[in-house]
């Protein structure tokens, strides 16, 4: 396993509790849209075993041509040890990453794509949308639906409806309206539904989509294969 050590080159305060950390990109390192990585803080590997409290699974919110690895995350006042340390890091500080993969690359199958996200989960979809804007081949249309009760809507300069690009975007601040809109979107029985958020959010969306007749093969989750079965199993849909 290769571990990359890199430095923070910029910190962007996206909203009161949301930051994007832009990291220097190591020479020769690249990734796909929809990628995630294991982000690790200094000291995570100093003992006999890795200190898992200093490691987090994080989506990469940028594309390679942006020349920085973007990590967008919410940091609340009361937070984990990892987030507490991360909050105090500044430009020039180091962190590590490893095991970078993509679970949700764009499927170019000539269908409509619906991106369902909660809060900062929208960061996973940012590179997918940018990739689509650059090359819209074999995709009919993309629609983004994001729920954030705090109304800390992210990347509004990108997630803005653009009919000429066959792209629409919605931000909703309450659960009832959000799930009603999911039902409306599920009227497209041939669409592909990408879902990103907490485990609870994933389960609830799967239940709604399945109730509307959407097949499991049409639902894409930002989860490794070994965990997909936990969310796409019949037991979760009862």
TrEMBL record:
GO molecular function (one): oxidoreductase activity
Xref: InterPro entries: FAD-bd_FR_type (IPR017927), FNR_nucleotide-bd (IPR039261), Riboflavin_synthase-like_b-brl (IPR017938)
Domain of life: Bacteria
Domain FAD-binding FR-type: 1-107
Coiled-coil regions listed: none
Protein name: Dihydropteridine reductase
Organism: Sporosarcina ureilytica
Organismal lineage: Bacteria, Bacillati, Bacillota, Bacilli, Bacillales
